[in-house]
């Protein structure tokens, strides 16, 4: 396995960790939102304003996290594309063989339906 392949796999593993953290963050925000809505039912007008402000803060934090993950995804996609391009340029016949094999497999699957 060459360094580019290892880098892509490492990036994919890191991306999965970040995805899991993001999902956990979104679940936490949803749970907090539900709790805050329950509190808002029992709160006075002033309490409602405080609960709403807290909910808006949590949502803003989540949006910032989503933007960070989006930037990380863009960076990793560019890196993976560069690694794939380098591999294809270094191994054109092997790459062509993979593409041909994939085409044959897709053809077999499609012809069976």
Q: What do these coordinates show?
A:
The protein is 95% helix and 0% strand. The mean pLDDT is 80. It contains 3 helices and no strands. The longest helix is centred in the middle third of the chain and has 46 residues, at 45-90. α2 (45-90) packs across α3. The protein has one domain: Actin interacting protein 3, C-terminal domain (Methane Monooxygenase Hydroxylase, Chain G, domain 1, Up-down Bundle). The protein has 113 residues and is an all-alpha fold.
Short descriptors:
single chain, 113 residues, mainly alpha, Methane Monooxygenase Hydroxylase, Chain G, domain 1, 3 helices, elongated
* Domains (count): 1
Assembly status: single chain
- Rg calc: 23 Å
Mean pLDDT: 80
The N- and C-terminal alpha carbons lie at a distance of: 36 Å
> CATH first level: which class?
Mainly Alpha
Uncertain spans: none
Concise summary:
By secondary structure, this protein is mainly alpha-helical.
Please describe the topology of this protein.
Blueprint: H1 3-42, H2 45-90, H3 92-112
């Amino acid at each position: 396995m060459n360094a580019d392949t290892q880098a892509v796999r490492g990036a994919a593993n890191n991306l999965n960790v970040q995805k899991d953290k993001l999902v956990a963050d979104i679940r936490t925000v949803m749970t907090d939102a539900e709790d805050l809505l329950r509190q808002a039912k029992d709160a006075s007008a002033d309490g409602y304003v405080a609960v709403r402000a807290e909910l808006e803060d949590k949502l803003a934090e989540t949006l910032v996290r989503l933007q960070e993950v989006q930037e990380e995804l863009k960076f990793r996609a560019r890196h993976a594309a560069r690694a794939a391009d380098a591999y294809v340029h270094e191994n054109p016949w092997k790459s062509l063989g993979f593409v041909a094999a994939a085409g044959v497999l897709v053809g077999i699957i499609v012809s069976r339906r």
